[in-house]
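Structure, all two chains, one model.
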Amino acid sequence: MIDILYFAWMRERIGLPKEQVETGAATVADLIDELIAREERYAVAFADLRAIRVAVDQVLVGFDAPIAKAREVAFFPPMTGG
Amino acid sequence: MSVRVQAGDFDPAEVLAGFGTGAGAVVTFTGQVRDLDGGGLLRMEIEHYPAMTEPAIAAMVAEARRRWSLSDVLVIHRFGALVPGERIMMVATAARHRAGAFAAAEFLMDYLKSRAPFWKKEITEAGATWVEGKDADEVALGRWG
């Protein structure tokens, strides 16, 4: 089981802040493909990957990052701190 | 060295008491909620990723300390609902000379803008809009190599 977190408009489009999923995905990109295949709202939220950032276990990574040993994957738009 | 992520306001004089004692240069920057051009901002809602925010900022501070000889660093960033004019954040750096203190403060500001997991939403009478990351923010990061 892996925790998936969503922030900002990703959270709003998917309709929840966090969920647990059973996945055999090897990478973040594989996980996204699995999610998109589940329901339309995921396909909408993940439509433009250029507008999405991802963190695996609280560290920013690319979509090709492995997640086999990850506990938590977070998806969110580009950050706007400061 | 101190990183604080908090909902409440802070008093700059209080948080800077004793900061950088003995340093030749202390630089402080305070960010405040800016109203929209023409006004109308009711509030700014800042969301963050609690498990990641402090570690991400601590990593930026560690990188700043690797690049410049800093005797002290303070980063405060608020989250939650803020109205125009309220303080959002503060960066303070202390070094022997001003060049390092200024550069490290700029470095931290640039990284906080687009690498610390905060998201701003602007609320007006017309509705709510997520603030979009700017290309200029990415360009600003580029100058640090």
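The helical segments of chain A are 9-14, 28-38, 40-45.
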